[in-house]
Amino acid sequence: MGELFSPQFITGIDANRTVKDSLTAAIGKQRARRRLSVTDLINPRHAFFRWTRPDIEPSPERLQRMLEGTGFHNLFGQGVSSEEFVEQFLEWEGIVGKVDIFETIPVELKTTGSIPSDVPGSRPGYIDQLGMYCTMAGARRGQLLIYKRSAYGREGELRAFDVTFRDPGRIAGEMRRRRDLLQNAIEKRDPDGLPCCEWVDRDCDYAGICGCRDAPPLSRVVPRGDAEVTENPDVVKALAEKLRTFGEGPDAGFGLNDLVFPRKSAFERQADEAEEDSTVEARLGAIQKQGFNGALYQAIRFGEPGAFERVPVTLRSLRGLVGTHLGRPTVLRSTKLREMVERDRLPQVLPHYFDRLAFECALTGSPAGRLVLYYETLAGEKFMVYDIWWKNLDRIRAEADRRLDLLESGAPAAELPACPAWMAKFCKFAPGCGCGD
């Protein structure tokens, strides 16, 4: 059984419009706002419309960027800190905020397409936000982490800055002023008097109604001379050490993805530790890729309370969790394909997605599974939801057992099913793995 293992067991693929619509609504759902936040105070006019026009939802492209950032923040925090210090909630004089990491000082993480040479001048909002967090926490110093996203083969980059604030009292006064100004505008349903946003000339969901071009200029919460910003490369080195093994490396058992890519799994377990790619850039790139799917999954999971569950599965040394939607094993994946694939061709174009779903269905005894496919690069409509029906679950389970037996026995990688040929172009074990032959 080679690359196209699972298609032979498919009896039907249905595009489920009902589930698609409910999931799309769940992802776009915005939680009701209750209290003014630090984020609101950075650009009060933009916040006014978020509060007063919940009917205007982010574009699919903007929502995608938001999910990417959310997922990256979550995984990064898990990698460098602990639950005790990640996403710490602060309250101060009717203003709330959530610091990315707060152990001894507030640490704020930002993701961007490029790291500016002059952070206070080019990204004043970063300094303003950190300054408000420090003021709320009673700290004069904080740290700013800026991650340049990896894209199109370009590695990401992480840089760290120590930021010391000279006049916390001045920051506190500006926070009160903005709080009162925004509260008054919301109560009167009138944005007049609110300053323009820092992205006045850029794309905005409220561009047609915000009136930013005619609004007063935006001042800074932290004036340029009130913050001392110093780059700290030692922080990056310390974070790199914490991230080096986060989320990678085999444990005592195997996971569901080891059944899908058994040959890659074998090579990874045989690789010498010295040969493993453990640079901070490589680890952050992997976290970035995981982050989007994780945030997408969380948005759907909590957008439809009770619809998603995690079901534990075991097979000898294999341990895994199968996500289910309304009781049906569900695989949520994103793809960079530039056009939607006809449903009948999906098992040939994306066989690894179907292999994963086939094994999940066999191990849970479900004759049907669900694939939620998100097209990252398409504009506008991005989702498709497919219900996949299977035959011969016992044979699928037997193949899972066979692959696991080969992995457990340490069989030569050449005896294991190859990965899809296209993966060899991006695999560190190619061409020695033989998958591209």
Written overview of the protein:
There is one protein chain. With 437 residues, the protein is of the alpha+beta class. It has two domains: 6-23 and 249-426, Lambda Exonuclease, Chain A (Alpha-Beta Complex), CATH 3.90.320; 31-241, Lambda Exonuclease, Chain A. Strand 3 (95-102) and strand 4 (106-112) form a beta hairpin. The strands form two sheets. A six-stranded mixed sheet has the order 1-12-11-10-9-8, with helices on both faces. The protein is globular and about 70 Å long. It has helices at residues 17-28, 38-42, 44-52, 60-80, 119-122, 124-137, 168-188, 233-243, 256-260, 262-270, 280-303, 346-349, 351-364, 393-408, and strands at residues 10-15, 86-92, 95-102, 106-112, 141-148, 157-165, 227-231, 308-315, 318-325, 328-335, 368-375, 383-390.
| Count of individual domains | 2
Which architecture of the largest domain would the CATH scheme give at its second level? Alpha-Beta Complex
Oligomer: single chain
The major sheet is characterized as: 6 strands, mixed
Tell how many strands the DSSP assignment holds. Answer: 12
